[in-house]
Structures are given as C-alpha cells and as structure tokens.
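ingest -> validate -> predict -> emit
validate: passed (alphabet ok, no gaps, 378 aa)
predict: started
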Amino acid sequence: MKRTLTYLGATLAVLALFAPVARAGRAPSSFAGMSPQGPTDDRDFELMRSSGVRSVRLAMTWAAIQPDGPGSWDPGFGGFDGEVELAAEHGIRIMPFLWGSPRWLAPESLVQPIATGWQRRSWARFVRAAARRYGPEGTFWARHEDLPYLPIRTWEVWNEQNIVTFSDTTDPLDYAILLRISGRVLHRVDPGSRVLIGGLFGRPLQIPPNTSSGEFLSALYEVPGIRPYFDGVALHPYVATAAAMRSQIRNLRRIMRLNHDEGTPFYLTEVGWGSDGFESRWERGLRGQARELNLAMSMLVANRRNWRVGGVWWFSWADLVKSCQFCDSAGLLTSDREAKPAWYRFNAWTGGDPRTVPRASPRDTRNAPGGGRNHGLG
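emit:
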C-alpha cells in the first residue's frame, strides 16, 4: 500500500508539472514576441499565432543575403522573403536584427564593417536595400498585394556587440560608426522607422575583452551627435533568476535618464532560460524554466510603463540540437514541437491557446536531443 501511494504521488507530481497553469495576469496585446534560434516553417508560424505572438525577431544576415559580392544580389534575398511571407500570412510582423559581414568584405561574419570607406558604403547599401524591400514602400509588398500588409518598421542594428562572441570589437566608439550609418539610412528610407541599439548582453562573464552593458551604453551616449540615429535600446538580460533582471534594467534606465533620454523605449529582444539540469547558470530544469518565465513576465508587465518597456522577445521557440550549451534546451517546445511547462506559462500571459501543441511526456523531455537531462523527474 505504501509503495502504491508513493507511486501515485510521484505520478500526480509529474502530471501537475505538465498541466496548464492558472492565469495570474495578462500581458498587453503584442507585448510578448518570439526570437527563434533555428529554421521556422508554416506550422511554426501557425503555432506562434495561436500563442498570441505578433512579432518574431529574426537575423537578417548580410553574409547569407549577398554572399558573392556587391554586384550579385540574391533574387530571393537570401531566403528572407520566405520568412516575411510566412509571417505575414499568419498576421505576424518580422523584426530583424541586421548583422553578419560577408566573406568578400571581411574574414569573419562578426567583423563590424566600419574599418574602411568601402566597408561602410557597402553596409549602407545593404541596409538601404533591405529597407526599400521590406519597409512601408517596399518592393516586396508591391509584389505581394495578396498578403496582409505588415511592413518592417523596427530594425535592430547588430547583436550583442558588447561581447566577442558576436563582434570583433566591443568598443562603443566603433559601434557608434555602424549605428550612425544604419540610423541615417533607415530614417531616410522610412522616417517613421524605429532603429534599436543591438541587444546588449547584460552581464558578460569576462571583462575585458567584453564590455559591460552599462559601460557600453554610457560611452555610446558620450559620442557627439549620436542621439538622432537610434530610437530604442535593446538588452539581453541573461541571468540565473528572473529577479536578477531588475538590476540590469534599472541600471540602463538610470544611464538613459542621466543622458536626458528617459522617454526612449526599452526593449528586451532576448530573454530566456534552458530546461536542462543546471549545466550552466541559465539552465533551471523544466519546472525552473517555467517558473522564471512566469516571474519575468510578472515583473515586466508590472513595470512596463515605469521602465518604458516596448516589448519582450522570448528566446527561444524550440530546442535546437548542437547549439550553445543552454540554447539546446531554451525552447518553449522540444525539437519535436511538443510542449514543455514553460509553454503553458507563456500562453497564460499572452492569452494564447496552449492546446494547439501536444504535451511532451517526461520521457520525451528527458530523452530528446537537447530536451534536457537530470530534471528531477525520475
């Protein structure tokens, strides 16, 4: 009898873990977007729509769009047309981050194209071509009049440029050159566009060679004449617990206020935790991933006006095998598109329908590639 009760208790605990949670609050419409880390198809966009997502952040990688030199634009714009089309069909707007130098211009994608006049002019042409293609008067929309009209209006310039993982230089003065070029071009093509400072990695582990988000933003504000070239500041506050996000956000808001820029919106373009078992500080286990998501949303929704939060994009949509240590379990869904507990938390906040995705069993989440190990379920 005792063994039966023990087994029953364990079974109920597992079922409770995967059950939908009660809605403790609701985010404003379009407040929460998605930042996928791998390929997305029609089914993915359909599920994102069902979960209340209206904005998807994607990399617009220059190296993929223009791989063969300045005179050979890919007619398919590197496949990005397909992503914009799929998103629009499901009522979702794309928010790209522009990055990735091609090999004909620089030895590595992470090299910011600012060292020579040729690099700077080439980058400006790429940015201009993207805005003219996907912006309000874009050629893409002229050729796709049957699609819902959802032009790209928000552009993020580079990605985590304060750490060496994504940038060859973490000097804010170098990035200011790239931001100035990008902002000038985008505002000329579409005066109503929003240009975001690329998502700053909130608390880098090694300084130097990395630069802290606060030091980076402070130095950027000191660049003469830089302010007209951006309309928002983006942050990637990767932390062990949601509560630790607060100090990062407050610090950057303090810097913005000291520079008389308190009215400018603030965006969290990547926020997330892995469901693996504490292989890194950003992995919290299945229950912990759902818990931190819930706590983060509660904090951000409650403070969205005070902090002027323009939106939050969750990293990530689905687990991706052979990605970074925490990325392989960062999805709300498994790599087979089955729901983790965090999926239910997310839908509770967005008003989405979590029933569109089958529940992942404890066995699935434990054994799937990137799905997690040592979750304390067995």
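The first strand starts at residue 32 and ends at 34.
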